[in-house]
Amino acid sequence: MGVFSSTDKKKNQSDWLNLDELSLVDVSRELNTSLNMEPKLFNRFRKEEIDDLLKESGLLHAVEVRGFPKSVIELEVLNDYDNRIYIKTADKRILVHMRLKVSQFQMKGDDEQFPMIYIDWLLTQNLKFEPGGLKKELYFGQEYPGLNVLNEFTIFILNLSKTLGTSGAFNVPEYFHDAVLFSRKFRFIDPEKEGTFRALIKSFRGTNLRNLSSKIHQNKVCFEDGEPYQWKYGEMISCTDAYLEKKVFQESYFKKVEEVKEKTKFRQS
Fold first, then answer.
1. CB neighbours of 106 closer than 8 A, spacing ≥ 6?
2. Which residues contact residue 59 at a Cβ distance below 8 angstroms, ignoring those fewer than 6 apart?
3. pLDDT, tens digit, 9 for 90 and up, residues 208-245
4. What percent of the chain has pLDDT above 70?
């Protein structure tokens, strides 16, 4: 359901590399370096302002509690479509890496557009753990355990959205466990996908999330009739604009979600 002007989760497509955009990235980086310009997130927020938002959300405190008391913040802005925030250790190892941009949301058959913050990439990693002995305990796709700061991160993103004046935020979770973690504040835009997602959770209630996610991405989960299930990612959205919230999540949306959730059942294959 491609309702946003651009997302980067496009596989097996020939248009993933735009040489014009690449040259803009190089030029932007050269200008900032040669003129010693201070990077500004979305061409607006200085590092001190982002620092205040990170503190307000509790994200910096949460990182400190996890055992990293002297973390540093860095901004890297390559162009309007590539805004990066890093939280690093004192010796510049990455603890948190987020890549953000603004994209336009437009419902099918509707001319009205809404600017949204797109969470293009999010990485959190607890570097105090040695990954070699924890492979069986890691989520699918991880090298290190996460920092368990998603709640604080979500508060930060939504506060950033309000301050920037956008209508909310969206992301495209690549893994099932990412969608579960985001689901406290985000919903799939497609009610069919949201219903299927909730049916998965209902069918495996009480199952360890890490184990369930691994089974899903190892193709070890199927529908009740034995048909193989394959995880398909899609856009999840969280609105800071009450008007957009009502426009997207109408009564018909929740009715469809419940309908799909109740009729769809899964089991291990």
1. 3, 4, 5, 112, 113, 114
2. 87, 96, 149, 152, 153, 155, 156
3. 898 899 999 999 999 999 999 999 889 999 999 999 99
4. 82
